TrEMBL record:
Described function: Catalyzes the insertion of molybdate into adenylated molybdopterin with the concomitant release of AMP.
UniProt feature, compositional bias: Acidic residues: 10-19
Organism field: Streptomyces marokkonensis
Record bears the keyword Repeat: no
Cofactor names: Mg(2+)
The EC number(s) this enzyme carries: 2.10.1.1
Recorded catalytic activity of this chain's protein: adenylyl-molybdopterin + molybdate = Mo-molybdopterin + AMP + H(+)
Protein known as: Molybdopterin molybdenumtransferase
Entry's family note: Belongs to the MoeA family.
Compositional bias ranges of the Basic and acidic residues kind: 32-48, 57-91
Region called Disordered, residue ranges: 1-117
Occurrences of domain MoaB/Mog (ranges): 269-405
Lineage, top ranks: Bacteria, Bacillati, Actinomycetota, Actinomycetes, Kitasatosporales
Keywords linked to the UniProt accession: Magnesium, Metal-binding, Molybdenum, Molybdenum cofactor biosynthesis, Transferase
């Protein structure tokens, strides 16, 4: 058949991705956290972000300090060791809820600037994409009266004389029945004209004259699926912004589609920084395995991205500059190099190319030295810390809301569960702690240091722990992990 990727009316043909994004986010809930930020301020507008680029005094995987003076919960210090708090004018980190809202706001702005056209993709390539146009039925469902069961199609009251030839699915319309006649019929086969009931196989028997008798009462129309029972041609089945799950693909096929018009995946380049990273074998001689190179691409795909490239470029400012300025991706994700050490080149390169820092450090543990920069109106860079769990924190804080919005995916429903155990907090920063879900509670896991993946590998979610910590039984907001949510994210395609 001709690929029916068209919609019921011509106006839907002109619906662009910007409109799809607006519809998907028509009634957005409040950003994660305790405060609403209807229009998050830009870097220049935010009081924490006044002034020039600056150091944060954190360690990334190059060995620079990864916290306000040390590991999580050890108290804030500046890079010279002097303690400071939120009122310190040099402490420009963005509150965690606001950082997420800023990333989403940046994506909306980028989508408007990019004017990305919807793409028509075959059903087998549409998994995980969002619909850019409504899914409108191209046919009645079912398109003809069908049998819901194996048995006999019968006409009028019994007993019935049974024809020799059976009616099977996929065959032409059968001959009509007259009262007192029956014919064997298979599930899904067309109902013969004149049939009033489908009598299930287990509900009929032959009498001593070879006629069909019902063993229980029958009701007119039983076990017949009438034409149009599920929908009529032209009915809207799903709205713009619906995520193409396996069930959606099945419904689209049933409704007559060969292709779907979808919001294109945001394109991502991943730049893995660090001279000390090995791609195989055991750590040795001060070298360590690159864990972010294997971990980030499938995680980003689960967030809706198309990975254009993954490059390992070491600690080379010139190569980093060339990689950033020649990329045509919607988003560049870098790993490490976001602090202020001798080989931390991300800030200097961004300053050199005139990028606008929207987020320069976030009040969250681990992952404080993450950043979000606008390279052009429709292009951004997320700088992740080099420590593995800190990088995960950056993914969920900045990359997830940005990619979700660019892909026109609906925001996940916010939910909270009580923590089974107390969680030590930081005086000023939010903490993200791996947890497993057990019944109606969340159990915090050990091994949640910035450089550790053992906890997150076993986790179902990350608990959002407010400054000051959480006591046993206190409810905490949870961020599901793609593979644990049981949804489309488990398909890393």
């Amino acid at each position: 058949m001709t690929s029916p990727g068209t919609r019921a009316d011509e106006e839907a043909e002109d619906l662009d991705v910007e409109e799809a994004l607006a519809l998907v986010n028509e009634n957005p809930g409040p950003p994660h956290g305790d405060h609403d930020h209807a229009a998050p301020p830009t870097h220049a507008e935010h009081p924490h972000n006044q002034g020039q680029y600056g150091s944060h005094g954190y360690r990334d995987h190059h060995g620079h300090q990864d916290g306000h003076g040390g590991q999580d919960g050890h108290g804030p210090h500046d890079r010279h060791g002097a303690p400071h708090g939120p009122s310190d004018p040099h402490h420009r980190a963005t509150p965690w809820p606001e950082a997420r809202a800023t990333a989403e706001h940046a994506a909306r702005t980028a989508a408007r600037a990019a004017h990305r056209a919807p793409v028509s993709v075959p059903l087998d390539a549409a998994l995980g994409l969002s619909l850019a146009t409504p899914l409108t039925a191209l046919t009645d469902l079912p398109s003809f009266d069908t049998s819901a069961m194996d048995g006999w199609a019968v006409a009028g009251p019994g007993p019935w004389t049974v024809r020799d030839k059976s009616v099977l699915a996929g065959h032409a319309e059968p001959a009509p029945l007259t009262d007192g006649e029956a014919v064997r019929i298979a599930t899904g086969a067309r109902i013969p004209p004149g049939a009033t009931v489908v009598l299930r196989t287990e509900h009929g028997r032959a009498d001593d004259k070879g006629r069909l008798q019902a063993t229980r009462g029958v009701v007119h129309g039983q076990d017949i699926r009438p034409c149009g029972q599920e929908c009529r041609s032209g009915d809207q089945l799903l709205p713009v912004g619906t995520l193409a799950t396996p069930a959606v693909l099945g419904l689209a096929a049933a409704a007559g589609y060969d292709t779907l018009t979808t919001v294109p995946r945001p394109r991502v380049d991943v730049l893995v920084l660090g001279d000390e990273l090995l791609t195989e074998g055991l750590p040795h001689d001060g070298l360590i395995r690159d864990v972010l190179g294997p971990m980030l691409p499938p995680w980003l795909r689960a967030l809706g991205a198309e990975i254009r490239s993954v490059r390992r470029i070491g600690d080379d400012a010139k190569v980093l500059h060339r990689a950033i300025t020649t990329s045509v991706a919607d988003l560049i994700v870098t790993t490490g190099g976001t602090a202020a050490g001798p080989v931390d080149h991300v800030h200097p390169v961004l300053r050199r190319i005139g990028a606008e820092l929207l987020v320069d450090g976030v009040e969250v543990r681990p992952g404080h030295p993450m950043l979000l920069a606008r390279l052009k109106a429709d292009r951004h860079l997320v700088g992740l810390p080099g420590n593995p769990l800190a990088a995960v924190s950056g993914l969920l804080t900045l990359a997830e809301p940005l990619l979700r919005t660019l892909a026109a995916r609906p925001a996940p429903e916010r939910y909270a569960l009580p923590l089974r155990d107390a969680v030590q907090g930081h005086p000023y920063d939010t903490r993200l702690v791996p947890v497993v879900l057990r019944g109606d509670g969340a159990v915090p896991l050990r091994y949640h240091g910035p450089a550790m993946l053992r906890g997150i590998a076993a986790a179902d979610a990350l608990a959002v722990v407010p400054p000051g910590g959480a006591r046993p039984g206190q409810e905490a907001e949870l961020l599901d992990l793609p593979w644990a949510a049981g949804g489309i994210g488990v398909c890393f395609t």
